Amino acid sequence: MYGTSHNPEDKLINDQKNYTLQYTDEIFRAFVDAVIPRTPGLAQEYGIVQYYGALNLNTDEYLILTLNNYYTPIAYPTAEMLESAAEQFAYTEGTERDKALEFIDFNVFASLAPMNRLLVINLLEQSMLDISNLPVPFQNNQGYILYITSALNQFTMMGYYSEWSGYGSTRLETPNMRKLEYFPLSWEQVGYPGPSLGYRALRVNNSR
Questions:
Q1: Cβ within 8 Å of residue 156, ≥6 positions away
Q2: How far, in Å, CA of 185 to CA of 165, rounded?
Q3: Do residues 56 and 166 make contact, with C-beta atoms less than 8 angstroms apart?
């Protein structure tokens, strides 16, 4: 068939690309799920709309897209950094279950409990892990580690509470091709009525 390559090198390249995409997505799905998880307890108290978390709103896709478009494509190296740090944590700080993850051929970061995923980030920021074994450009670069870990948290919040999820099927298009297909769920969660030229607000004059 036309357009189909039987070159083994092409297949190897495509397989590597697919692996990289899947690996990166798994890492960031685990990350955003730890930062903004589903909350069934809030749903019972305040209604079903409060159940949904970052995975429901495709916040991981926003995070990957932002890291790759606003910096030198950095999503995959960042995923590798989180995985390397998680392996260190599992071996030195984790439970017996965590330590066993190091010898299993799958994503250690995503396999940690959500609280421990956040702890891995904290240990990185506090220089409590060996950064000499991290991938480039994070290897022995504490300043850049702090820069990116801070960005991860900021971009997760921006992706979740912005109009991103409302773009629906057009969210991965270029900005000029996106359309707001429905009202973002996160806006409903916080009671934000949407953009306006202005809202009435109570202003208190503290001058004497």
A1: 31, 32, 35, 36, 54, 59, 63
A2: 7
A3: no
C-alpha distances (whole Å) from 42 to each of 13, 48, 69 are 45, 8, 35
Domain spans in the chain, listed from the N-terminal domain onward:
8-190
Tokens of 142: 């504490």
pLDDT in the model for residue 18: 60
Percent of the chain with pLDDT over 70: 78
DSSP 70: S
**Tokens linked to 49:** 């709309």
Q: Note the pLDDT tens digit of each residue in 97-142.
A: 555 555 555 689 998 999 999 999 999 999 999 999 899 999 999 9
Reading phi first (left if > 0) and then psi (alpha if -120 to 50, else beta), residue 127 is in: left
